[in-house]
TrEMBL record:
Cofactor: Ni(2+)
SUPFAM superfamilies according to UniProt: HydB/Nqo4-like
Recorded superkingdom: Bacteria
Keyword terms of this UniProt record: Magnesium, Metal-binding, Nickel
Name this protein carries in UniProt: Nickel-dependent hydrogenase
GO MF, one annotated term: nickel cation binding
Annotated Ni(2+) binding sites: C383
Amino acid sequence: MTPAGKIVIDLYHDSGTVSGVQIASNRPEAIAQVLIGKTPDQVLETVPLLFTLCGNAQAYAALLACRAALGIATEPELDSARDLLVQLETLREHAWRILLDWPVFIGLAQDKKALASLLKFDALFKRHLFRHAEAFKLDSCLNVDTDRLMQLIDDLEALIDTSIFNGRLVEFQALTGEAQLQNWLRQSNALPASLLNHLYGRNWAAVGQNNVACLPEFEEEVLSRGLQRQDLSTFSRMPHWQGRCFETTLLNRQLSQPLIADMRGRYGNGLIVRTLARLLEVALTPSQLRRLLMQITDLSVLPLSGAINESVGLAQVQAARGLLIHRLQLKQGRVHDYRIIAPTEWNFHPEGVVAQGLKQLQAENLNDLQRQAELYINAVDPCVQYALHLTDSRNEIENHA
């Protein structure tokens, strides 16, 4: 696997108030260059080896881009099955963060048994969806065991209900406003309730609230024309759209949920809204998996990828952490250029949503400031390791005097 690199975040503060933020990434710019000179089939063999996180989303984006560049017709049934795998991966990534990170923030023990159980589902779903479990190849074939897949979705939902919601998943799914949420919190001793009560108790619900907007959805042709006007090398590292930074996180996908709409009216895009968006995505995904399973036999469902021309392919996939874009150009049947724009590049842009959110932090002491920063970074969620450094601005000025 190609090394993923790291994000370094320097947070400067003065008496508990953030005075500046610098974000730098040493993520390899040349990951996609590994694919130069390869055939589409070789690309699809290589991409899963390059990415350990969001591997299904990366493989699917690569497949859609290759298919578009080759002018291959859409495959509605297969793409519904592939979308199901990406949704499954999204649920796993969010549940992993909840079970692994949230207990640490509030001094509870991690549920490592549930973490281990989550890992088994990907291979099982692939085995019962595709022949030879090969989902992301140009010649993939369906081999669907509907009954077994329905049982797997039921098992997954039961695991989420038990390990995260402590048996009260259905009640959480029905929440539409803050009053209902607070009633649910009073009656629940589940891990999310403990974290949310912690945020309320510390008056941290609006932590990180800022004015960075969510990235709009792109039609293929609009995105294609926009990219043609960009320096692709710069855009891949520090993307912006029409001169603005945007965020592309799981919050984008949950904006229409009644609970999120109500909470945003009070807390904007602050910490509690992001926390609830992650919980809602986990809570609602099993129903989406069932819908996608039914769509595998519904030919009216179409994918979102299309060809730009006979040699350039562009793909958009909603990965766990936001919009993932792959763009490739073929010459004489081999990759001439390949670009990957991951959600991390949008969200951890030096002027992006993480930088702007961290600039809003205020705390009474250094420990609280660091915990606020860690909670906020975790809520946006980089797909790589990060290092957070807090520096007293006054000492910094003295050292440079």
